[in-house]
Design brief:
Length: 600
């Protein structure tokens, strides 16, 4: 007891710092308990989660910072009873105090006070031990409370992170739902594409089947083609052999054609260089009421004129009765026109009184009524195509002039007077226009122009009488590319104006002047024919423009000439008919010499 009294008793409460004994030297800190270690681990994880939250999106960072700035719990100092109960209280907003149980290592369990039991007074040593342990236990409690507050803060952070994760999970769920929807669409698309693929595959299989069939057909065609190639080679050999034979036949045909041409022209020469044919037109209008008994046709080349007091017969190259068609007349002059392609000049002249059918014979109408001029051009075009097989090529050019009142005019150009020049060998018209004839339609256009420009007038003898002499000239130029031979010839087709008597025509004024020039030109033509017939040394070609132009056709040149004398069948014209027949007979007796081939 004395020893206990000798040791001073430390003051627990209210004692001064100088009275508190100095603590013993610090010993080594014992290892942390399991609870402390768990609290440290929880704190570390909370800090890591909080740092992750701060490094996240701005919204998450704001939420974490707001949570820390407004803590849900506030720690208070221990209540006085906590010294006895060993529990710390924590104020809960809006609720009752919450007690926190302390660990056994930091507090000493205090038994609840007995109601009737009297506590013994502690001994001084016990009081000293208790006084020494109180500061240490209070520090641990404070530290634990701080740790608990820290852990609760970390727990709050974890809850915030949990809410954030839940939000993210919701977004992920929404994204997942969208992805599932997209997946469903893709699956539907895949199903549709699979269906299309199946259809395409079926079509491909069908095409493969067709391809197989086509390959079989192709193989058959290849076999057939090989057979045809073999046949083609044989045919080519035959063609080569036939080509050689054809060339030989062409040479033979060319030789025979030349012989035929010579024989043909010999026959024409034997018939006479001025050949004369007579054509009687059919009765027209009131003429049909009077029978034509004064004319008869004993043969194809003879005509008989009965004048009542007696009859007279005439022989010519050909006589065309009133029933002869235009085509029949042309058939008889084809051989003469063909001489142009052989290189001989040819002239066909229509002569007769007015209204006897000269223009109808030479110009004609449309279709079957076509005259010698359009038919001759068409015939030459057809003959040119046939001669092309013998390597002949021909070109045609045409001109059309009229002699009106002893003046020459171009019917295809400007209506102006042209000069006629007669040299020693030929006659030319200066300024005359020539049109190329490349197609049959070209001659139709030319004749349409001349029909409008030629001088015509109505007389008592003819309602549309030609008041001029019209001369159509077709220039023929030929060349053979194999032999190199060339030919040049001219075809003259002449429609003379009709002769008239003053008493019969009743012409006055301009008509009388026209009649005078017409009859004068025809009279000069007759004089040239008589001079040829009488073999006079001088032929009066220069007496008129008409005979100057027809000089080459009347014996001065190299021409085969045919004169068609037209007759009016009317009984009232019997005297003029007789005069025309007598002039025709004189012309048929005229020899103008053999025509010469025009070669270059």
């Amino acid at each position: 007891m004395e020893g206990d009294r000798a040791s001073p008793v430390p003051k627990v409460l209210g004692s001064s710092r100088s009275n508190i004994p100095r603590p013993a030297p610090t010993k080594a800190v014992p290892p942390a308990s399991a609870t402390v270690q768990a609290a440290r681990n929880l704190k570390r994880r909370s800090i890591e989660h909080f740092n992750k939250a701060l490094s996240g999106t701005p919204a998450v960072k704001k939420m974490a910072l707001s949570t820390l700035s407004t803590p849900r719990y506030s720690v208070t100092r221990p209540l006085p009873d906590s010294m006895r109960t060993g529990r710390a209280t924590m104020a809960v907003p809006g609720g009752q105090p919450r007690y926190l149980q302390t660990t056994a290592a930091s507090t000493r369990r205090v038994a609840p006070p007995a109601t009737t039991r009297t506590k013994p007074s502690p001994t001084p040593s016990a009081i000293n031990r208790r006084s020494a342990s109180l500061p240490r236990e209070s520090a641990e409690v404070v530290e634990m409370k701080a740790k608990i507050v820290q852990l609760e803060g970390e727990l709050l952070k974890n809850k915030t992170e949990l809410e954030l994760l839940k939000s993210q999970l919701t977004l992920k769920d929404q994204n997942l739902e969208m992805l599932q929807t997209s997946l469903k669409c893709l699956q539907d698309t895949i199903a549709f594409k699979d269906a299309q693929l199946n259809t395409i595959q079926m079509a491909l299989d069908a095409e493969k089947g067709k391809s197989t069939m086509m390959q079989v057909t192709l193989d058959a065609k290849d076999s057939e083609n090989a057979h045809l190639k073999h046949e083609l080679c044989e045919r080519m050999e035959d063609i080569g052999r036939l080509t050689s034979q054809l060339a030989a036949k062409r040479d033979e045909l060319r030789e025979k054609d030349e012989n035929m041409r010579l024989l043909h022209n010999t026959v024409v020469d034997l018939k006479g260089q001025i050949r004369v044919a007579v054509r009687v037109r059919p009765p027209l209008g009131k003429e049909q009421d009077v029978p034509v008994n004064h004319l008869s046709y004993p043969g194809v080349s003879s005509i008989k004129l009965d004048q009542g007091k007696g009859s007279q017969s005439f022989e010519f190259q050909r006589v065309f009765g009133p029933n002869m068609s235009q085509a029949r007349v042309f058939n008889d002059v084809e051989e003469l026109i063909m001489s142009c392609l052989h290189g001989y000049n040819v002239s066909i002249i229509a002569y007769g009184q007015t209204g006897s059918g000269k223009t109808h014979t030479m110009r004609g109408g449309e279709g079957e009524s076509e005259g010698i001029i359009p038919r001759a051009v068409k015939f030459l075009f057809q003959s040119r195509e046939k001669l092309a097989d013998l390597d002949w090529k021909f070109e045609f050019k045409a001109s059309f002039i009229e002699v009106y009142n002893e003046e020459v005019y171009d019917l295809l150009g400007e209506r102006k007077k042209l000069d006629v020049k007669m040299g020693s060998g030929n006659t030319s018209v200066t300024g005359l226009k020539y049109n190329e004839i490349n197609a049959i339609d070209d001659i139709e256009n030319i004749l349409a122009v001349t029909d409008r420009t030629r001088s015509t007038a109505a007389t008592k003898c003819n309602e549309q009488s030609s008041r001029s002499h019209a001369v159509f000239e077709l220039s023929v130029q030929g060349y053979n590319k194999t032999s190199g031979a060339s030919r040049h010839a001219c075809l003259h087709l002449v429609d003379l104006a009709g002769s008239e008597r003053v008493k019969e025509s009743g012409a006055e004024g301009d008509r009388f002047k026209e009649m005078t020039y017409i009859n004068s030109a025809l009279s000069n033509l007759q004089n040239c024919i008589r001079s040829q017939l009488n073999k006079n040394p001088h032929i009066p070609y220069r007496n008129s423009k008409l005979t100057m132009i027809l000089r080459d056709s009347l014996g001065a040149g190299n021409s085969k000439t045919l004169v068609i004398v037209t007759l009016n069948p009317a009984v009232s014209q019997i005297a003029e008919t007789k005069r025309s027949l007598e002039f025709a007979q004189k012309m048929s007796m005229t020899k103008i010499g053999s025509a010469k081939k025009q070669e270059q």
